[in-house]
Specification:
alpha/beta, Rossmann fold, two-stranded antiparallel sheet, elongated
Amino acid sequence: MQSSSLTLESLKQLLNAIRKGDAISPDWPGWEQFAIERQARPVDVKEYLCSLAVAELNAQHKRESLPLVQPDAISTRHEMLRALERDFLVDNTRLQAWSALYYRYLAPVTFSVETLAESAHVDRRQFYRRVQEGLVLFAEVLCRQRAALPRKNLRAYLPPRDYTRLFGVDEHVRTLTNLLTDGCGPALISLEGLGGIGKTALAQSVAETLSSHRHFAGVYWISARQNWLDLGGVLYSAVDPAFSLYDIISRLSVQLGIEQVDGLSAEEKIAHLKPALDDAPALVVVDNLETVEEADALLPVLNRLAQPTRFLLTTRHSVARFPYVWRFPVPELSFENARALFANELGRRGRTLAVDTVPFEKVYALVGGLPLALKLTAAQVSHLPLSLVLENLARGKGQGQEALYTYIYRRIWMMLDDAARSLLLSTLLISPDGEDARWLQEMSALPERDFSAALEQLQEYSLLEVTGSLEAPVFHLHRLTSAFLRSEILQQWNGDSA
């Protein structure tokens, strides 16, 4: 039974467990209906239900001018049975139903049905009927209590948007939401691509869509982003990013409200997280996975915590080596979507000039369909001539251009080995339509063993796109990557790493 559905049978099971003194754990299917905190002690469940039932019973007592029930007062067995008898002497079926429910399940002393029926001066069948009526009334009260509670804000942990409108992502959002809500779908999905290609924005759009659907009991967001580039071309350091596996697990524990794990080891926290995520399946987004120091150790942990909970990851580095992760390479925007984004950014800045196809072709030829590069270019075009902006971008001159290349490429460039750098530089002559592996190897002049490892490294860091068939793959270079390789920035970095 789903935790969101309250039935008379599930309510009866819970009340019977309370009557027998069984421990009530958060695993009980109807727990969420009562909006009880998952960390509550088992006795709190009985106190909560008893307080509601007694309030309803006493409302009827007041109506009939009868003494109020006081569960905490010391009463003998005989006094309680006399109170039940008094309730049944009044011609008020609602009073009798609440009284039968209370003395059957929630009274301080446990009585058999035979004893209760005898004290009420009705046969056992009639008493059972009143108990059943009491269950119906109680279920109605509980549902009203649930409906009156403020609904959980599933977007509470999502970061604020840094965009006003997204272009070219509708189909991606549909694909990803379908995968994440498919009972047989992948437990971990990795959004991969160059920095600035829109992985975070896509993940956020998917998370917002699923929070609206309320398919998951919770939607959580953990950011490992260490810096970001604003549209003025200034590079900022993020405040308090997650750096390690322990950071990720600790922050997820906090968002889930599992406070008792504070101070425990990562493995101990994981042991507490698993049942919580199993009982209340969630969508967990881990943004900028590549900056986590122990990313390779983190993925197996997330896989342990998954199903029915799902994880959506964003990373500049491919995680193809983990077979249980479904990879989703985020493509750059098409020419039309890129032009629409560029025009939107100009309009947002008060520039209503039409973005003609020919002038924009020059922009697209240089920066391609990377949303961040397009936004930064539009920001500068709003107050500088387009020709000057494109010239500076091509040379890597100016704060905006330098920061853009630093944000996207510097970390990757410094992580490449010599063979991979050599191969990347040789791709400058690659055709816009792409080239095959044989062409790449001939141009790089690398031995076959070094070439294979270098090619794999460039793909891992999303520097090459692959199209074509399995038999004849075709490799492409991002337009902005080509501009970066021609820029004066790269000459400085080569000097740094020499």
